[in-house]
Amino acid sequence: MYSYVARQPIFNRQQRTVGYELLFRDGESNAFPVIEANKATCRLLVENYMAVGDNLATAGQRTFINFPQESLIRLLPMLLPKRKVIIEVLETCTPDEELFLAIKHLYRQGYVIALDDFEMAPQWQRFLPYIHIIKLDLMKTGVEQACQFVRQNRTRKIKFLAEKVETYEDYAAALKAGFHFFQGYYFSKPELLKNRQVEPEKLTTVRLLQEICREEVNFTRVEQIIASDVSLSYLLLRYVNTAAQRVVEPISSFKQALVYLGEEKIKIFVSAVATAHAAIDKPKELYSLSLQRARMCEMLASSSRLPFMKDKAFLTGLFSLLDALLDNSLEQLLELLPLEPEVQAALLKRQGELGQFLALLDAYEQADWAKVSEYCQALKLNEELVAKSFHHALSWSSEYLRASEPPEESAPKEQ
Fold this sequence. Notes:
By secondary structure, this protein is of the alpha/beta class. The protein has helices spanning 37-50, 69-73, 97-108, 138-141, 143-152, 168-177, 202-212, 219-227, 230-243, 254-275, 284-303, 310-318, 322-326, 330-335, 341-349, 352-365, 369-379, 383-404; strands at 2-11, 17-25, 62-67, 85-89, 112-115, 133-137, 159-163, 181-182, 191-196.
């Protein structure tokens, strides 16, 4: 499965690229699909900021992203690093009190805000102190009228961007009028980019939404749900480590990530993922095996001389089948997650104590009893205990998945 996005460069007065506008796509056709605007924005964020690492669409300069009314009121832009994005307030937004308060809040949080396809209506005047960039559509507004507006407002502390610049004459007129930035087919058409998609299981997302909609969020329960889904765990850790650049040590546990994000960002994050209606087309058995390996690694660590590593052991087992789940090499996937060195070494090279736990699991699943005995001796583990751990983990993962299924609705009773 792949995600698609188009990006169109934005140039300054020296015709140097200063950023890109990201445009949602859902296939090889380089055109905006028939899709609700809020859903398109949520999918764009999930697929291009949370689920990938070195994404060409978001690498380098700032990216301009369109946000419709609902996404702005829900403060969805706060999922993104403020130094890398510019929030575009779509022309379809209504300049009401809710939107005004949202824009004011985002401005105070340090985000750069642009008004897209600005139409110079008086209702927008009170927004202008919180706006950094005004985009004027030369085709829609007219070149002369747009240029006149810029000339009349040169004293404002606002930058002006000319979009839909189609010809050299348009560019020359906009440059002379004082526009700061330029975008349009005269410079470049949108470039379509394709990325492999990483999506959480829909059922887990629904269960998470149920939890975060409660008055008091139970972080223990949220942690349990996230830990049950490998892809969602990956998205969360990828996102929190990207957002937490000021943290010296990488965030490598779910509880640490949840505490760092806090209730507000957790709610925004989960609602964005849920709105994207994501689902991985993988057999349940693969998820069951991932949970089984995670639980067994945790139990082995608890029973060994390394009980303090049980959380890392659970994470190691959970991610040991990540390549099969996400259809990508483990090396590439782990490059996106700044996991602690011992976890990385265990997953990639079966090194260290955590690596030995995984190697023991591999040997047990393959019925290589000589290897099982060898690893048990190295880890000072009783072979009978390992067998019990295996059967307990098998039972635990099956029960956990059964408990995760939504309850069937009972038929209404007859009166």
